[in-house]
Amino acid sequence: MILTLGEVKTWLRVDGLDEDGVIYLLIAAAEKYLTNATGHVFTEKNELAKLFCLVLVSDWYENREMIGKVSEKIRTTVESILVQLSHCYEST
Q1: Predicted confidence band at 48 (pLDDT cuts at 50, 70, 90)?
Q2: Considering the domain boundaries, does residue 91 fall inside one?
Q3: How far apart are the C-alpha atoms of 37 and 18, rounded to whole Å?
Q4: Nearest to 85 by CA among 25, 43, 38, 21
Q5: Is residue 79 part of a domain?
Q6: Which domain holds residue 50?
Q7: Is residue 40 part of a domain?
Q8: What total number of domains does the chain contain?
Q9: Which residues are CB-neighbours of 12 under 8 A, at least 6 positions away?
Q10: Using alpha carbons only, what angle is made at residue 49 by residues 46 and 52, rounded to the nearest 5 degrees?
Q11: Is position 26 within any domain?
């Protein structure tokens, strides 16, 4: 996994265990989205991949009806990071 539950909960400023299941699903979906969009598998060592996943998870967490889609407020950010990661030859 690129992200840990703890990293995401810190990013989202979520305390407690109530949302852990949802957050795990969002992490998995964001990482799959990244792999499908770039054709690369990234690890936790790639800081840009981590940031990409954090941005997606945050957007989906705040806009749960949009899971699997990207909101307009982050579309430019996501597209820019995807272009950079798509050209990344080292997937770490």
Answers
A1: very high
A2: no
A3: 30
A4: 38
A5: yes
A6: 5-86
A7: yes
A8: 1
A9: 23, 57, 58, 61
A10: 150
A11: yes
